[in-house]
Amino acid sequence: MYTEKKKKQILIVDDEEVNREILKEMFRDGTYELIEAEDGEAAIEKLKTNDRIIMVLLDIVMPIMDGFGVLAYMDQQKLLNDIPVILITSEDALDSEDQAYSYGVADVIHKPFYPHIVKRRSNNIIELYQHKYHMEQRLKEQEEEIREQEKKIRENSEFMIETLSSVVEARSAETGEHTRRIKYFTRIMLKYLMKYFPKYGITQEQIDEIARASALHDIGKIGIPDAILLKPGRLTPEEFEIMKTHTTIGCEILEKSYKDQTSEFYRYSYDICRYHHERWDGKGYPDHLAGDEIPIYTQVVAIADVYDALVSPRVYKSAYANSMAYEMIMNGECGQFSPDVLECFALAKEDFFNIVEVIKMFDFA
Fold first, then answer.
1. Are 87 and 100 in contact (CB under 8 A)?
2. pTM
3. CA 340 to chain centroid
4. What DSSP string runs through 216-255?
5. 189, 138 in Cβ contact below 8 A?
6. What is the β-pairing status of strands 107-110 and 85-89?
7. Is the peptide bond before 63 cis (omega within 30 degrees of 0)?
8. In sequence order, what DSSP letters do the residues of 48-84 get, joined into one string?
9. What is the Cα–Cα distance from 203 to 193, expressed in whole angstroms?
């Protein structure tokens, strides 16, 4: 069944009936539905019960509630951004006009007025506000489209992470479990970094991205020979040199598999792959970076990586106790770390211990 589209409304507010009739006469071409109110309180009731009002023609001096009372209500309800108000008044005091504009009225017209001028101004303002409304709606649609695109990008990234991590896990069950735990530890450390070290400008969005990227830190081990990766004992110096290449192999894998190399996620993933074995004193690898040359988020992943390696059993060692692993890192027995990162690690101590105990209770594989 065909239903006629309801017309937009213009609300005319004036305590003088003759004034309302003059204003109504200007819009009798049928473009808009005209509704009236004889005072401010009646106007507010119209605004509450009508969602098709696109303009208010408003007098100031009225009984019960004046025009400024209506403007105060519209301002409180945030209606003035969407519904333009033209103040039509006999008031000529400058402060009244200033007060009206301070509320954000679209125009002020003084009585006596020329109807054709009021109509022209009204139509221009309605057209302007409607254009603004449609632009805002389009922007909302575009924002939604962008969010959908970002969601797909995140899903693709998650798929890539899961795929690469699964390949690594297939080579070494220890490594697979290790990558999942690193995400937990990294997120905890970054939250402390965000709270206590605002100078780094870490945001919640970055924490989410970096934690996801941390799972890729060891993907380069895909390229390490089984004889070295799965060796049931300590590596020889020559074997260790080969093992160290997992940092650069991981970067090569990312370069070949990730299309958008301008994204923050790619940068986090690349830096974490390459630099998670760099150390504050420059004695790490592969590039022997020192101090602030190492990105702060990479240093966070590095300390999480070392801690988890210490508290986890390996084919060549038993797991260290939580407290022992903590002391070894704080004492510099596992390489030098940034003082800021060590302070965050100290703050996160109990959180790390708790996670390890929970992991012991459940199968996270």
1. yes
2. 0.60
3. 26
4. TTTGGGGGS-HHHHT-SSPPPHHHHHHHHTHHHHHHHHHH
5. no
6. parallel
7. no
8. HH-S-EEEEEE-S--SSS-HHHHHHHHHHTT-TTTS-
9. 10
222 C-beta neighbours (distance < 10 Å), count: 18
Residues annotated as catalytic are 221
Nearest to 326 by CA among 183, 179, 185: 185
The letter for the amino acid at 267 is R
Phi-psi region of 224 (alpha: psi -120 to 50; beta: other; left: phi over 0): beta
Cα–Cα distance for residue pair 32/10, rounded to 1 Å:
7
Cis peptide before 237 (omega within 30 of 0): no
- Burial class from Cβ neighbours inside 10 Å (0-12, 13-18, 19+) for residue 179 reads buried
Instruction: Please name the residue that has the structure tokens 């213009």.
Output: 10
Cβ–Cβ < 8 Å for 341, 300: yes
52-103 pLDDT per residue, tens = 999 999 998 888 899 999 999 999 999 988 899 988 877 565 567 778 888 8
Beta bridge partners, 36, equal: 12
Per-position b or e across 197-211, b if 16+ CB within 10 A of its CB: eeebebeeebbebbb
